[in-house]
Specification:
Order of helices and strands: HHHHEE
Helix content: over 70%
Structural class: mainly alpha
Radius of gyration: 36 Å
Shape: rod-shaped
Largest sheet: 2 strands, antiparallel
Distance between the termini: 82 Å
Length: 137
């Protein structure tokens, strides 16, 4: 009977050791979990910083670049139209020079229009501030 009790006790102790691990093992797992949490938080902070940078590009830089491109392209187009009208009504510039110039400005106008369709459009009013209306595309 004593032998049976010893076996039962040994079996019970082995089961208890298997169910509840040692304190050192628990502390090591806890330390590993803390390191994983710190690494995950650092990765999350880095990802949030990248998201903020990309939002700044989308919200500030792209509209600014579209506005600059639109202003430059429109100014060049107006200058080409003035040169074309001067060449038609006066003999200052030959029409051979202004026609390719005007035709070459169609590509930048198309590119600016395409960018505005994708990102948003600048609206300019006389005597008022220009505002950027974001596109949902």
């Amino acid at each position: 009977m004593t032998n049976r009790r010893n076996e039962a006790t040994d079996h019970l102790l082995a089961t208890m050791r298997a169910v509840s691990p040692s304190l050192e093992k628990l502390m090591a797992e806890r330390l590993d979990l803390r390191q994983q949490i710190r690494a995950s938080q650092a990765a999350l902070a880095e990802t949030e910083a990248q998201i903020t940078a990309l939002q700044r590009v989308r919200d500030v830089r792209i509209p600014r670049y579209i506005g600059i491109a639109k202003a430059v392209t429109l100014a060049a187009t107006i200058a080409a139209l003035i040169a074309l009208s001067l060449s038609l009504f006066t003999s200052l510039i030959e029409i051979k020079v202004t026609a390719p110039l005007f035709a070459s400005l169609l590509l930048p106008l198309w590119l600016v229009d395409h960018a505005e369709q994708h990102f948003g459009r600048w609206q300019v009013h006389v005597g008022a501030r220009a505002n950027f209306i974001r596109s949902d595309g």
